[in-house]
Amino acid sequence: MDVRAAVAFEAGKPLSIETVQLEGPRAGEVLVEIKATGVCHTDAYTLSGADSEGKFPCILGHEGAGIVVDVGPGVTSLKKGDHVIPLYTPECRQCEYCLSQRTNLCQAIRETQGRGVMPDGTSRFSLNGKPIWHYMGTSTFANYTVAPEIALAKIREDAPFEKVCYIGCGVTTGLGAVIWTAKVHPGANVVVFGLGGIGLNVIQGARMVGANMIIGVDLNNGRREMAEKFGMTHFVNPKEIGGDIVPYLVELTKGGADYTFECIGNINTMRQALECCHKGWGISTIIGVAPSGAEISTRPFQLVTGRVWKGSAFGGARGRTDVPKIVDWYMDGKINIDDLITHVVPLEQINDTFDLMHEGKSIRSVVTF
Ligand code: NAD
Ligand code: AHE
Ligand code: ZN
């Protein structure tokens, strides 16, 4: 079938709106009509060429929501008409990782996903007879996509696509890192580095679990108002404190933070986030994605003296199990998504959303089809 998609032909170039061909779903796969998709910094990261798994030409996008249009042979958990959120972290419930109950990193299809193909090793998208590669198993910058059954969370039908698409990445990543990865406790002091689409959801999660101080760090003073609305108690702009931010934050928290979160993707702020943790017990969680080849460093003494460095992918959420619950939280008014979606545009304007992100003018942009 013909599909309208924003194609990334080359790293560092704007996306191009094209009519491409999409094959129907094969065994274990599902055809989804994408109704809305958010634009995450990770899409910009891969488009920039810094992603070692970036493969061009491809159809980016991993924060979508839509409706099942057709199912391939053997699909049992979904049917035509179901509302779904595609999952870049699938949940097969059968692999060693899923069965361990110690991680959300299902590995059932990770290898083919990283190569931009479906689990059978081929792409469903093509243009003029040449393959266009999938991205993160989701490729939501298209009005139709094909995804494996295990990479789709079935959600309630009264949830608005243009809002809950954000649960496909940013909302779940931020809330989940607080709840499932770091397990922030009530009364804790928390520092969040980077107050964008992810960091503001970390702030929202920290408030939900009853954190005490919620300190936001960002170079953009324009983030302050929104972060305060979501629960930030103190704002720090590193450019305005006239010195090293680590001792500043240790002093502010009277000994160091119980939990910190890096939501930027910068190896210097990753180090700062670890080192401003409390001696003996502070836990720093890396969420930001740093460029291929980048390495983090600190004095091992920081770890010897009890600080813990962790990482979180998709907030530690098990997508098919947890995403429908987060949709319920939104529908029940327990979490705020609406205020974070600052821009809604048609597919033709998708390149503007990358400009808005780089200029620090948007929190989340959503493309509707
Ligand atoms: P964003 O662009 O919306 O937000 C980034 C924020 O960081 C901005 O507010 C910016 O002003 C701030 N910032 C940039 N450099 C800074 C610095 N040196 N000091 C302080 N603040 C600085 O991005 P996002 O969509 O929120 O994504 C954030 C990061 O998280 C990206 O690296 C993205 O790839 C990653 N990410 C990871 C996961 C995961 O599962 N681990 C999921 C989603 C996104
Ligand atoms: N291909 C990248 C990996 C980037 C990365 O770490 N991705 C996160 C999700 S970011 C969503 O916005 C993730 O889920 N990681 C776990 C995994 O298995 O990829 C690179 O740098 O190579
Ligand atoms: Zn993302």
From TrEMBL:
Q: Which reaction does it catalyse?
A: a primary alcohol + NAD(+) = an aldehyde + NADH + H(+); S-(hydroxymethyl)glutathione + NADP(+) = S-formylglutathione + NADPH + H(+); a secondary alcohol + NAD(+) = a ketone + NADH + H(+); S-(hydroxymethyl)glutathione + NAD(+) = S-formylglutathione + NADH + H(+)
Question: Could you cite one Gene Ontology molecular function of this protein?
Answer: alcohol dehydrogenase (NAD+) activity
**Source organism superkingdom:** Bacteria
This entry's Enzyme Commission designation comes to 1.1.1.284
One Gene Ontology cellular component annotation held by this UniProt entry: cytosol
Q: Which residues form the Alcohol dehydrogenase-like C-terminal domain?
A: 197-329
Q: Which Pfam families match?
A: ADH_N (PF08240), ADH_zinc_N (PF00107)
Q: Give cofactor(s), names only.
A: Zn(2+)
Q: Which Gene3D superfamilies match?
A: Medium-chain alcohol dehydrogenases, catalytic domain (3.90.180.10), NAD(P)-binding Rossmann-like Domain (3.40.50.720)
SUPFAM superfamilies found in the cross-reference section: GroES-like, NAD(P)-binding Rossmann-fold domains
Keywords, sorted A to Z: Metal-binding, NAD, Oxidoreductase, Zinc
GO terms of biological process kind: formaldehyde catabolic process
- Enzyme category, top tier: oxidoreductase
Domain (Alcohol dehydrogenase-like N-terminal): residue spans on this chain: 27-155
Q: Does the keyword Metal-binding apply?
A: yes
Family per record = Belongs to the zinc-containing alcohol dehydrogenase family. Class-III subfamily.
Q: What PANTHER family does this protein's entry cite?
A: ALCOHOL DEHYDROGENASE (PTHR43880), ALCOHOL DEHYDROGENASE CLASS-3 (PTHR43880:SF12)
- Name by which UniProt lists this protein: S-(hydroxymethyl)glutathione dehydrogenase
Naturally occurring in which organism (per UniProt): Skermanella stibiiresistens SB22
The beginning of the lineage is: Bacteria, Pseudomonadati, Pseudomonadota, Alphaproteobacteria, Rhodospirillales
